[in-house]
Amino acid sequence: MENPLLLFPQLNISASKDKPYYKVMKSAIKEEPHKASKPGAKQKRNRLSLLLQKSEFHEGDRLGKPGNLTKAASVSPEEAVKWGESFDKLLSEKAGLDAFTKFLKTEFSEENIEFWIACEDYKKSKSTHELLPKAKTIFETFIQKDAPKEVNLDFHTKEVTSQNIGQPLPTTFDAAQSTVYRLMEQDSYPRFLRSDPYLNLVKGRNPGRPTLRRRSRSFTVNDFQGVRPDFTVW
């Protein structure tokens, strides 16, 4: 190491090592390499944390975690119970439709409800000028062969629907919509009613929140002396 006097000619030769300015300079020389290493370690930790967060997010999205299906804190148990009365009752309420759509995403069959919603919107068209572009979009998205979100239709229904696309009417997709509706009602709807997210709503539980609360104060060993554990709270 070079002589500090050469690096810092302003230092007093006779100064004691206990002088404040000597301590400051000495500390600065020792700490400089340590400070330089901190950013690298911090950046590595940040990168690792970010990667873990991204991994958890995509994993949860891919698997469709049940706890994330129904963020419906405003839905009362009484409302959720009504969804079980009929499939039509479920779809007639926005919260029910949203919850069912999220459920279908976990089963990778959301194209069915998306097609049903598109047909409902199509029937609300106020002019023939709106029907043609909407009909073409629905057909290309859900019905034609190898469509990106092709729904499961029998040959006859698909054939009749295809023939009516050239001159669409408000009733053009009625047969196809009814087929998909029955499919969801008989297949997906019963499974939805048996799913954990729906049962949690009926029981008034919010799957996004923990059922246990942490205590707000710290306890010491003395706090528990002479106290017998009460397991009934669990």
TrEMBL record:
<protein>
    <submittedName>
        <fullName>RGS18 protein</fullName>
    </submittedName>
</protein>
<keyword id="KW-0734">Signal transduction inhibitor</keyword>
<dbReference type="InterPro" id="IPR036305">
    <property type="entry name" value="RGS_sf"/>
</dbReference>
<feature type="domain" description="RGS">
    <location>
        <begin position="86"/>
        <end position="202"/>
    </location>
</feature>
<dbReference type="InterPro" id="IPR016137">
    <property type="entry name" value="RGS"/>
</dbReference>
<dbReference type="GO" id="GO:0009968">
    <property type="term" value="P:negative regulation of signal transduction"/>
</dbReference>
<dbReference type="InterPro" id="IPR044926">
    <property type="entry name" value="RGS_subdomain_2"/>
</dbReference>
<dbReference type="InterPro" id="IPR024066">
    <property type="entry name" value="RGS_subdom1/3"/>
</dbReference>
<dbReference type="Pfam" id="PF00615">
    <property type="entry name" value="RGS"/>
</dbReference>
